[in-house]
Amino acid sequence: MLRKTIAALLLVLLVFTTACAKIPQQTVAGTVKTVTDQAGRQVKLPDDVETVAMMFSIPTSLLLALGVGDRLVAVGATWGIQTLIEPSLETIGTVGRGQLDMESLAAYNPDVFLHKASDPATLEVVAKLGIPALGLTTESTAEVLEAITVLGEVFNRQARAAELVEYYHSKMELANRIVAQIPADERKTAIVMGSEIGKVAGGNMLQSFMIETAGGINCAQDVESQQAWPVVGTEKIFAWNPDFIFCTNGSASEYEAADLLHDPTWQNMNAVKNNRVLLVPTDKDSWEYPSLSTCLGFLWMLCQMYPEYYSEADFLQEVDLFYQTAYGMTFNLEFLGYRT
Amino acid sequence: MIYEVNNISFAYPNTEKLILNEVSFSLARGEILSILGPNGAGKSTLLNCLAGLVKPTHGEILLDGKDISDLPGKNIAQKIGYVQQAHTPAFSYSVFEFVLMGRAPKISFFGRPQKKDEELVWQTLEIMKITHLANRPYTQLSGGERQQCVIAHVLVQEPQAILFDEPTASLDYGNQARILRLIKRLSAQGYAIIMTTHNPDHAMLLGGKTALFAQAGKLSCGKTSEIITEESLQKIYHTDVRLLYVDALQRQACLHAKL
Amino acid sequence: MIIQSERELEHKHKRQARLINIALLILLFTTALIALCIGKYPLKPLSALAVLFGKANLHDVMDYHVVLGLRLPRIIASIICGAALASSGTAYQGIFKNPLVSSEFLGVSQGACVGAAIAILLSASAAQIQLFAFLGGLLAVGLTLLIPALMRNNSNLMLVLSGIIIGGAMSSVLGFIKYIADPETELAAITYWQMGSFSYITSDQLASVLLPMGLASLCLFGLSWRIDILSLGESEAQTLGTNVPLVRIFTIICATLLTASSVSIAGTISWVGLIIPHFGRILVGTGNTRLLPTACLGGALFLLTVDTVTRTATAAEMPISILTGLIGAPLYAWLLYKRRMIIN
């Protein structure tokens, strides 16, 4: 009797499991286009993508720059200038933080779901739900620019995307022209330190690219790690003795730049001695977070390290220009939290 | 003969000391063998050999004419019941469930007890007069009740021989007598009984055969009245023991002479 | 007179156990249907049922996706994982005659994670990953048994301590594997596998574990009475003609297979395997022939309920282990208090 019950139960479960597989195929209304995402997947999308949901926050600024911020229906988190650029973000929903809430996502039923390309499992699960899932990766500047191009295709904003990429390249060229004038023996060494003392940006990270574009030498250039923000430890930093320490501006940082400046054990460091432990601006829009704003980041580093070649006044003109170009509006420096 | 034990010796691996040294005896159905010996003499080891739990180093034990070391555990268990010293199980099975587990040797690997097995348990409980305990948790019984349950548990095995390891240990005076009476009755019913005990008087009450552990694992075996003598007891227990004929009881009794 | 009533009492217990199982089964089905009807996706309960029975119109495809693609697999997954964890816990407790153990306290779950992580490093297929998880679990429980054997100490506490040692060691090994793994591909896969979650469950995953789980639980049910006998103690079981090593190994294999399969779909979920068997004993008594089905159904009901709460109660879904821990730990403390006499 018992065994029969168990066998019957198993049968019921099997039938239900096969039922799961028998979902009618989604018929995408209207014309369809295919976009290759940064995970190398072919994603079928409606021609007109009108709603976007995502769990992470990196693409928000890119969507705002493309002028499609109003199409977001759910994001992980928003901050700073984003809600000023697109007021609807103030009350926007979420599809989970850290772990995707599938039913909320189904309830939004967006035209596209944007997600990290490094998490193919989630992309696949969402695709199974009948929601096109697009993988993005933004670990380097090249990837950020590529992401803009891909998103331009998704939203039929190819021209705008090209314009933004062009602008970014022009700022890189500006930096390159200035750096070319700096003799090799005047080059400064620097590191970008992460959310904990001892964590640095390795050679393969976006922040390392920023130091190099600004004409600096990243001491941690040769740190090969598969992890983001590898831990090298305080001793290694002492051994490098960099001229500049740039600290990330994340609110999650467990220390403040001032702590280092007043820590007696750090007093012999070049960067500390010369008061060159600096927080990368700014409070309202991070200049070292994967986004277009990194062009302000490297130009700022340039004017900090080589004021005789590129003055702060020159740099500050670029700030308004950038925000005008990217978002069609400007913010005053005080509001951004820029410290002169 | 249900048991024929021929010259078995036993030593623990990597030790010289023989716990059992060329022990021989035989036992037929309906016979009782009491094993006496000081602490650590090897009584339990002998029982474990007889139950097939450990293998003698030398010699052979024939069970119904077959070498016990060639028999699968299941076949041994169908012939021999073993009442080990009291233990407390980790889980509180009911007495009925516990007794029913005695049917294990008769049931296949993936099987479970059927109606007829349960019926046998009820009958056995009735014969043992412990039906009233059937639904009590086994862990909450008194020592005497528990011993009765263990015996019922062994009886449903339907063995031919039953081994008892100190069945009267940790029982009160009345329960000791009750268990001995039960053992005697079982032997009258045709079970071959082998029992270890610390009390020579118990062996004398039961009659039958007695085996005495002398020095160094040697066993002397024979009729109880011939084996249990004042000299032999004094030799193994190193204390002054008297065997007296008590007129009122019309039997010999074993008593301490003095302290 | 007494004879009759004792028999009747025994029969009554048996009948009660059956009634309890039937009640649990009905409760489980009802809960499953309710769970199918609720969720964050706005869908009328009746439409959910209509979709399930194929009576809904094909107008809104998303309804189908939510009911058949999200809720149903998830409900089935929590049911089979709950059943698997509870029955493996019951089996481990039985053969080790130790009411204080379960798969996560014997290091089995952690071992399964290590096995799976190694398979991922070797870029193995999904089926191979599952096999490695199973082997890792077996290895862990083997090591856990080795320590008390080496120390010649058979106490309940020793086994529990040994489980903690092996579980801790396995966690460290897992940490090391994650450290050396490629963060882009392997680390993500390992973390995904280890964390597990009912929220990403797919019907393919379900189909891949249903067969091993079904076979293993059928074997355990077949062995349930032998497990009773083993729980009396090794030499006692031996004198009853039971092949102790064979039953033990067979049971360990089945229980480990159940645990590893469950870990492979939902990650490590603690407490279910430990507390559900105890509740089963309160309901239907100690005998495993009655206890195993009850534990199975109880575990399924418990995990289904907890998962339904986690997916509907809060805006951002919380990991299921938080809730099982919050419920399990105090319940276990209460059980220890209630049953302290018996454990002594």
Question: What can you see in these coordinates?
Answer:
The complex is a heterotrimer of chains A (340), B (259) and C (344). Chain A is 42% helix and 11% strand. The longest helix of chain A is centred in the middle third of the chain and has 23 residues. In chain B, strand 4 and strand 5 form a beta hairpin. Chain C contains 14 helices and no strands. The longest helix of chain C has 36 residues. Chain C starts with a helix and ends with a helix. The model of chain C has no long low-confidence stretch (mean pLDDT 87). The interface between A and C is large, with 44 and 49 residues.
How is the main sheet of chain B built? Answer: 6 strands, mixed
Structural class of chain B, please?
alpha/beta
Strand order of the largest sheet of chain B: 6-7-8-3-9-10
Oligomerization: heterotrimer
Helical proportion of chain A, percent range: 40-55%
In which range does the helix fraction of chain B lie? Answer: 25-40%
Strand content of chain B: 25-35%
Instruction: Find the structural class of chain A using helix and strand composition.
Output: alpha/beta
Unreliable stretches of chain B: none
Shape of chain A from CA axes? Answer: globular
The ordered string of helix (H) and strand (E) elements of chain B is EEEHEEHEHHHEHEHEEHHEE
Concise synopsis of the structure shown:
The complex is a heterotrimer of chains A (340), B (259) and C (344). Chain A has 340 residues and is of the alpha/beta class.
Write the layout of secondary structure elements.
The complex is a heterotrimer of chains A (340), B (259) and C (344).
Chain A: H1 2-21, E1 32-36, E2 42-46, E3 52-54, H2 59-66, E4 72-74, H3 82-85, H4 102-108, E5 112-116, H5 120-128, E6 133-136, H6 141-154, H7 158-180, E7 189-193, H8 206-213, E8 217-218, H9 234-240, E9 244-247, H10 257-262, H11 270-273, E10 277-279, H12 294-305, H13 312-327, H14 333-336
Parallel strand pairs in A: 3-4, 3-5, 5-6, 7-8, 7-9, 9-10
Antiparallel strand pairs in A: 1-2
Helix pairs in contact in A: 2-6, 6-7, 7-12, 8-12, 12-13
Chain B: E1 3-10, E2 20-27, E3 32-36, H1 43-50, E4 58-63, E5 66-67, H2 73-79, E6 80-83, H3 95-100, H4 115-127, H5 143-155, E7 161-165, H6 173-188, E8 192-197, H7 200-206, E9 209-213, E10 219-223, H8 224-227, H9 230-237, E11 241-246, E12 251-256
Parallel strand pairs in B: 3-8, 3-9, 6-7, 7-8
Antiparallel strand pairs in B: 1-2, 1-4, 4-5, 9-10, 11-12
Chain C: H1 2-37, H2 45-52, H3 61-95, H4 108-121, H5 126-151, H6 156-180, H7 183-195, H8 203-230, H9 234-239, H10 244-266, H11 272-284, H12 288-312, H13 320-338, H14 340-343
